[in-house]
Write a structure and sequence with these properties.
heterodimer, A: alpha/beta, Ubiquitin-like (UB roll), Rossmann fold, Dimethylsulfoxide Reductase, domain 2, 7-stranded mixed β-sheet, 6-stranded mixed barrel, 32 helices, 34 strands, 28% helix, globular, B: alpha+beta, Arc Repressor Mutant, subunit A, Glutaredoxin, 4-stranded mixed β-sheet
C-alpha cells in the first residue's frame, strides 16, 4: 500500500481499510501516543517491535502486523489496564451504547480483569464550566479534551494535573472552562468522562433518530447530525466537513437547539383545570406539554388562554383584536393578512408594502417570499439584513474566497468584528491557519480573539476604516492624514508600517484574502463598504470572505431578499427581462433597505410611504441598530404581519397578524453559507402546533391575495429555483442529493469543480454511527450517473440568463461625511457577543445564563479623565438616548472610543438590545458623552 | 494585581529573557514564587502564567506534576525522609515512624504551628549516608532517632538558619555567578528561531488539513 509523505501509520492503515483501535488519536489534532491502544507490530532491524501506530510515520518498505498474537496481547493488556480504575457504570453512563471504550473492549479486550482491588475514587461530577461536567473516575487520560483546548481552540483552560494514577483533567480554580467550543470536548471524549448539561441523562443513544443537516446558528454552515427522540431535539453532533468545520461546532450551534424545543418557560405546575384535563399525561408543566410530541396541540387552547406560551414557540396563527393577540385559524389569519396588505397596496401602490428579514429561512422559502414580494405584490422594499450587514451588491459582487482559500492564503486581512464571537468556527479555521504561518493584518476597533496572533493590528475608530485602508495600500496622502490625525498615536502608525511590510510583496493582492464584516454596529455599513472597495480597488487579485453572520443571510441575499436584487445574484436591472418572463412582472424601481423602510414608516423620509410591513422572522426592535427609529416605525399604526417561530418584542407588541412558522430542523431545504456553499438541511421534527414551513405561508398568502405562487411543495420550489436563479443553475435535486454534495456545493457551479476531492477520514470515535446517516436516509438518486458516486453536472448555466453581480459596486465616499471627533465625546463601538439576547439563546435555558453583563469598556485614559475606574457607574448619553452602565478599563480599546456589546440587555428589565437605544442609524457614526454618576 | 514582590518580579523577567521560548522559564518561576510564599499560591500561578504566556491551568498542571513544587501550604521546614531501598536497609522506616511520633503527624502532614511538614520521599541521591534526610532540599546527612530530635530542636531554635533558609527552596534560580547564559547569544538564537519558523512557514503555507 502507499501513503502520503509523513502520514501516520494509523491513518494510512485506515485509508487502506484496516481499522486500528485507538482512543487518543484524533485526525484533526497532533498525536500524543497517550493511550497505547494502537500498538502494532512493526518490523525493524532489531526484529518486530510493538509501536504506537498513531505516533510513527509510514516509511518505505515498512512491514506492519496489526493482528499478531503479540499485538493482541498488548491490546488485552492496555484495555485491562484502562479498565482497572474505570468505574464500569455503563448502565447509568450517558456514553453507554456509543462508547468507544465499551465497543473496543468488546472487540479487542480480554473479557476479564484480574483487578480485584478497590478502584480509585474522585468526587464527581464536577462542573468545569456551565455546560460541561467532568467525571474523573471514568477518564482514561487520552488528552483529547486538553489537546483540543490548547491546539484547536487556543485556550488551554483545562490541562492535566497530578501524576501517575492521580492524573486528572483540571481547570484552574479561578478560571472555569469558559470556552465557546467546550462542547467539542464532550463529543470527542472516548468515554463518559465529559458530559454536557443539556444532554445529560436525557436519552440513550440507541433511542435517538438522526439526520444529517447544516447548522444555521451563524453563516459558517457547519455540518451536523441532528438527533431527536419523541419529536424533541436531544443533541447536535458536529460532522467532519473538510472544507467547512473539520468536525467542530461552537457551543451556541451545539446547544441552541433547546430554543427549537420551545421549553424555555417552566411555569411550574399547570393550573388545576388544565392538570385535571391531562388524564394520562404525567409530566405537569407547560414546557413538558409542548414536548410531548403526540400531545402537542392537545391542550393548546387552554394553555394559551393561561398565557403559558408567552416565551416559548409560537404555535397558532393570531390576529390582534382590540390590542390583544387572539388565536384564530389559518384561513382567518391569512385573510386578515391579505386584506391588510391589499389595502396598503391599493392606497399607496406596491411600494407601500415592505418586508424585513428572511435570513432564518431556507433558500427555497426565501425564494418563495422573494417571488411573493417582488413578483406578485410588486415591491422591491425587501431586506434580509437589518442594518447590521453590508450592501448586498458588495457582499455578493466581491470576488469570493472560500474558507479553504482564506486558510491557504499567505496574507489575511480582517476588517470585521471579533470572529470568535460572530462566526466561531471560522475563527477556529483561521486561527489554525495563522498559527500555521499565515500572516494576519487586523483592522479592528477593539481587541479580538485573533489580535494576539496578528502580524499587525491596526486599531481604528469608527469612521476611520477607509482612511486606514487607503494608508494600508500605500496611499501616502492617507498615511500623512493618519499621522496628523488627532488620535494619531492611538492609530498606531508603527503597526501600520508593519502591516505595509506584510503586504509589500503582494502589491496586486495575489494570495491575499480579506474578511470583511461589521467591526461595529454603531457605525454605518457604508463606511466599511467604502473601505472594502478601497482594498478591492488597490488589490485587484485579492479575494473576499464577507463575514455577515445571520444564519442563512447569504441564501436570503442570493434569493433576492434585498433591494435592487433578484434571485440568483442578479441585479434588478440586469434580471428584469429574465424574471419578468419567469414571474410575470418585477418591481419597476429599486426599493428601500431596512433603514429606509423603518424611516418611511416612521414618517421621517420623503417619497412613497410604507404602510404595511411583513416581518420575516425578524425583530427590528432588537436587531436593528437604532431602537428609537424601529420603535417609532412599528408604533406608527401601520399594518404589520409577522411570520415567525419565536415571539419577540416586535411581534408581541406590534404585529397585527402572527403567522407561526417552522424553524430549523423542522423543514427540509438548503442553506447557503458564507463562501456560497449550498448544503442541505435535515428535516427532523414536526413543527409544533399549527406552525407551517415559511414557503407554504408564502404560497397560501399569495392565494389569499388572489394570485398563484405556482408551487405546491418544497420540491416544486427547488425545481423552479435552479431553473430560474442564474447563480444556482444546475443545482438540481439529484445533484444536491448525490455524494458530490456531501460537503455542499459551491455556487455558481463551476463545471468539474463540484466533485469531492480526497475525503479525509472522519473520526469514528467521535461520531458514533453518524457516517452511516446518509445511507440510512435513502436519498433520492434520480438522474445519477454511474455507480461510483460521481455525477455529471452538465447544466451549469442557463441559456440567455442575466449576468451575475460582480465587482464591489460603485465607490462611495461615506467617510468624507464622518463628523470630526469631538474631544469631549467618545465614539461608540458596538460588537456582537456569541451569547446575546437573540431568541436562540434566550430560548435555550442552558445558554441564557451565559449572556454577559453589559459594561462600558473604555481606555483607562478616558476613564481617568472622569476620575472613574473599573466597577464605577458611568452614564452614556447620545443624541438618541442615555443609559447607565458599569465601566471597565480596557487598555486595548483605543482612546476616544467606548465599547458596549450589541444586543445584550442592560438589566433584567429594559430592552434586550440596550445599546441600540443610543445608536442613530441616520448618522455614519454615533458619538456619546460619558459622565460619572 | 501583582503578587510577586518587585525584586522577584525583576528576577522573573530576567529568567524569562534567558530562554528562546518564554515558557521554558515556567519551572524556575515556580521556584521563585515558592521561595516567596513557601508554596505556590493560585495568585502566583496566575502571574507566572501571564509572565510566560501560558494559561494558569497549564502552570497548575506542571506544578502538580513535580513533588518539589507545593500547591498546598507547607510548613517553614519541609523534612523529607527517604525510604528507598538503600535507606530502607539503613533503618529509614524506623526513622520515619520516629519522625511521625516526634512531630505528632503522618507523613504528608504539617504541624499545627506550621513549622514542619514531614514528607516520605523517593531516592534523594545521598545513598552513602543512610537513612538520609533533607530539609528544604538541603542535605542534613544520615539521621538516627536522637540526631533527628536534635535536628528538629536546632531548626526550631533557628540554629541552622545559615544553611537551611526558612521556606527555603532551590537557590539555583537566584544564581548570578558561575555559568550564566550570554544574553546576546540568547537573543541571537531567538532571532534565528523566528527566522527558521518564518522560512518553514513560507515553504509550507497553512496546513489546511491539520492533525497528521
Amino acid at each position: 500500500m502507499s501513503a502520503k509523505p509523513g502520514e501516520m501509520l494509523i491513518a494510512a492503515a485506515e485509508r487502506a481499510g484496516t481499522y486500528i483501535p485507538r482512543f487518543c488519536y484524533h485526525p484533526r489534532m497532533e498525536p500524543v501516543g497517550m493511550c497505547r491502544m494502537c500498538l502494532v507490530e512493526v518490523d525493524s532491524p532489531r526484529g518486530a517491535t510493538l509501536q504506537p501506530a498513531c505516533f510513527i510515520a509510514v516509511a518505505e518498505g515498512m512491514v506492519v502486523d496489526t493482528t499478531s498474537a503479540k499485538v493482541k496481547k498488548a491490546q488485552d493488556g492496555v484495555l485491562e489496564f484502562l479498565l482497572a480504575n474505570h468505574p464500569l457504570d455503563c448502565p447509568v453512563c450517558d456514553k453507554g451504547g456509543e462508547c468507544p471504550l465499551q465497543d473496543q473492549t468488546l472487540a479487542y479486550g480480554p473479557g476479564e480483569s484480574r483487578f480485584i482491588e478497590e478502584k480509585r475514587h474522585f468526587e464527581k461530577p464536577i462542573a468545569i464550566s456551565d455546560l460541561v461536567l467532568l467525571d474523573r473516575e471514568r477518564c482514561i487520560q487520552c488528552a483529547r479534551c486538553t489537546r483540543f483546548a490548547s491546539e484547536v481552540a487556543g485556550e488551554a483552560q483545562i490541562d492535566f494535573a497530578g501524576r501517575g494514577e492521580q492524573v486528572e483533567v483540571s481547570t484552574f480554580p479561578t478560571e472555569p472552562f469558559s470556552s465557546y467550543f467546550s462542547g467539542n470536548t464532550v463529543q470527542i471524549c472516548p468515554v463518559g468522562a465529559l458530559t454536557a448539561t443539556p444532554y445529560r441523562f436525557t436519552a440513550r443513544p440507541w433511542d435517538l433518530d438522526q439526520v444529517e443537516s447544516t447548522c444555521t446558528a451563524c453563516s459558517v454552515g457547519c455540518r451536523v447530525a441532528v438527533q431527536s427522540s419523541s419529536n424533541r431535539l436531544t443533541r447536535l453532533l458536529g460532522i467532519d466537513s473538510d472544507p467547512v468545520n473539520h468536525g467542530w461546532l461552537c457551543d451556541k450551534g451545539r446547544f441552541a437547539f433547546e430554543s427549537v424545543n420551545g421549553d424555555e418557560v417552566d411555569a411550574g405546575p399547570l393550573p388545576p383545570a388544565l392538570a385535571d384535563a391531562m388524564v394520562d399525561v404525567a409530566p405537569a408543566t407547560a414546557a413538558q406539554v409542548v414536548g410531548l410530541g403526540a400531545s402537542r396541540g392537545q391542550f393548546l387552547g387552554e394553555a394559551h388562554e393561561t398565557g403559558l406560551f408567552e416565551h416559548g414557540r409560537l404555535i397558532e396563527p393570531q390576529i390582534r383584536v382590540e390590542g390583544e393577540l387572539v388565536s384564530v385559524g389559518w384561513g382567518e389569519a391569512l385573510a386578515v393578512a391579505a386584506a391588510g396588505l391589499q389595502g396598503a397596496r391599493h392606497a399607496g401602490g406596491a411600494s407601500a408594502v415592505a418586508m424585513i428579514g428572511g435570513a432564518r429561512l431556507t433558500n427555497e422559502s426565501a425564494y418563495a417570499w422573494a417571488k411573493l414580494a417582488k413578483g406578485i405584490i410588486g415591491t422591491d422594499s425587501v431586506d434580509a439584513q437589518l442594518g447590521d450587514g453590508l450592501p448586498a451588491d458588495l457582499a455578493l459582487g466581491l470576488p469570493r474566497a472560500t474558507i479553504d482559500d482564506a486558510c491557504a492564503a499567505p496574507v489575511l486581512i480582517t476588517l470585521a468584528g471579533d470572529l470568535r464571537e460572530e462566526l466561531p468556527v471560522l475563527f477556529l479555521r483561521l486561527r489554525e491557519a495563522i498559527v500555521g504561518g499565515s500572516r494576519l493584518i487586523e483592522i479592528a476597533p477593539a481587541p479580538t480573539a485573533l489580535s494576539g496572533l496578528a502580524a499587525a493590528t491596526l486599531p481604528i475608530r469608527p469612521g476611520d476604516a477607509p482612511l486606514v485602508a487607503r494608508a494600508l495600500v500605500g496611499d501616502e496622502a492617507a498615511v500623512g492624514a493618519l499621522s496628523s490625525h488627532p488620535q494619531g498615536s492611538a492609530l498606531a502608525t508603527g503597526s501600520l508600517a508593519a502591516a505595509r511590510a506584510v503586504l509589500s510583496a503582494r502589491s496586486e493582492g495575489d494570495g491575499v484574502v480579506i474578511v470583511v464584516g461589521r467591526p461595529s454596529y454603531a457605525e454605518s455599513g457604508d463606511v466599511v463598504a467604502e473601505a472594502a472597495r478601497v482594498l478591492a480597488g488597490a488589490l485587484p487579485k485579492a479575494t473576499f470572505l464577507p463575514a455577515l453572520r445571520r444564519g442563512n443571510v447569504f441564501g436570503a441575499l442570493d434569493m433576492g431578499l434585498a433591494p435592487g436584487l433578484l434571485p440568483g445574484r442578479v441585479s434588478l436591472e440586469a434580471g428584469r427581462e429574465w424574471f419578468a418572463g419567469a414571474w410575470g412582472s418585477v418591481p419597476a424601481t429599486t426599493g428601500l433597505d431596512t433603514a429606509g423602510i423603518l424611516s418611511s414608516m416612521a414618517g421621517s423620509s420623503d417619497g412613497d410611504a410604507v404602510t404595511a410591513l411583513i416581518l420575516l422572522g425578524s425583530d427590528p426592535l432588537s436587531d436593528f441598530p437604532d431602537r428609537a427609529l424601529a420603535l417609532q416605525a412599528l408604533s406608527a399604526g401601520h399594518f404589520i404581519v409577522a411570520v415567525t417561530g419565536h415571539p419577540s418584542e416586535s411581534v408581541d407588541n406590534h404585529a397585527d397578524v402572527v403567522l407561526p412558522s417552522a424553524v430549523a430542523h423542522e423543514r427540509p431545504g438548503t442553506t447557503t453559507n458564507i463562501e456560497g456553499r449550498v448544503s442541505r438541511l435535515g428535516h427532523k421534527l414536526t413543527a409544533p402546533g399549527f406552525a407551517w414551513p415559511d414557503w407554504m405561508i408564502a404560497a397560501e398568502l399569495a392565494g389569499a391575495l388572489g394570485a398563484d405562487l405556482g408551487v405546491s411543495s418544497a420540491n416544486d420550489l427547488a425545481d423552479e429555483l435552479h431553473l430560474t436563479a442564474p447563480a444556482y443553475a444546475g443545482l438540481t435535486q439529484s445533484v444536491l442529493h448525490s455524494d458530490v454534495a456531501h460537503d455542499g456545493i459551491l455556487v455558481p457551479i463551476i463545471l468539474g469543480a463540484a466533485r469531492r476531492a480526497d475525503v479525509e477520514p472522519i473520526d469514528p470515535v467521535a461520531l458514533p454511527g453518524v457516517e452511516a446517516v446518509e445511507r440510512q436516509g435513502a436519498p433520492p438518486r434520480v438522474g445519477m450517473a454511474g455507480g461510483d458516486g460521481s455525477i455529471d453536472i452538465r447544466m451549469a448555466s442557463l441559456v440567455d440568463a442575466p449576468p451575475l453581480l460582480s465587482g464591489p459596486g460603485p465607490a462611495g465616499n461615506a467617510s468624507a461625511h464622518v463628523p470630526p471627533a469631538d474631544s469631549y465625546a467618545l465614539r461608540l463601538v458596538s460588537g456582537r457577543r456569541l451569547y446575546d439576547a437573540g431568541s436562540s439563546v434566550t430560548g435555550s435555558p442552558s445558554l441564557t445564563p451565559l449572556v454577559p453583563t453589559l459594561v462600558a469598556r473604555a481606555n483607562p485614559y478616558d476613564l481617568d479623565r472622569l476620575g472613574a475606574t473599573t466597577g464605577d457607574r458611568v452614564r452614556l448619553r447620545s443624541a438618541r438616548g442615555e443609559m447607565v452602565l458599569e465601566a471597565e478599563a480596557a487598555p486595548g480599546v483605543p482612546r476616544g472610543t467606548v465599547a458596549v456589546d450589541f444586543n445584550v440587555p442592560a438589566g433584567s428589565d429594559g430592552p434586550a438590545n440596550a445599546v441600540s437605544s443610543l445608536i442613530d442609524s441616520r448618522q455614519l457614526v454615533t458619538d456619546v458623552r460619558m459622565e460619572s454618576v | 494585581m501583582r503578587h510577586l514582590a518587585a525584586d522577584r518580579l525583576a528576577r522573573a523577567k530576567a529568567l524569562v529573557a534567558l530562554y528562546p521560548q518564554p515558557r521554558s522559564a515556567l519551572i524556575p518561576l515556580c521556584h521563585l514564587a515558592q521561595e516567596q510564599d513557601g508554596w505556590l499560591r493560585p495568585e502566583a500561578m496566575s502571574e507566572i502564567a501571564e509572565l510566560v504566556g501560558v494559561t494558569a491551568a497549564e502552570v497548575q498542571g506542571t506544578a502538580t506534576f513535580y513533588d518539589m513544587l507545593h500547591t498546598e501550604p507547607v510548613g517553614t521546614y519541609v523534612v523529607s525522609v527517604c525510604t528507598n531501598i538503600a535507606c530502607l536497609l539503613g533503618g529509614a522506616q524506623e526513622l520515619l515512624e520516629h519522625a511521625e511520633s516526634a512531630l505528632g503527624l503522618r507523613a504528608g502532614g504539617t504541624t499545627p504551628d506550621g513549622v514542619f511538614t514531614l514528607e516520605e520521599s523517593e531516592c534523594l541521591a545521598d545513598c552513602d549516608r543512610t537513612p538520609c534526610v533533607q530539609v528544604n532540599h538541603r542535605y542534613v546527612g544520615a539521621q538516627s532517632a536522637e540526631s533527628f530530635d536534635r535536628l528538629l530542636g536546632d531548626l526550631r531554635a533557628g540554629k541552622l538558619s545559615d544553611t537551611v533558609p526558612a521556606h527555603g527552596t532551590l537557590v539555583r534560580v537566584q544564581r548570578t555567578v558561575g555559568l550564566v547564559a550570554d544574553r546576546a547569544a540568547v537573543a541571537a538564537e531567538r532571532g534565528a528561531m523566528a527566522e527558521a519558523q518564518a522560512a518553514q512557514a513560507a515553504r509550507a503555507p497553512a496546513p489546511a488539513g491539520g492533525g497528521a
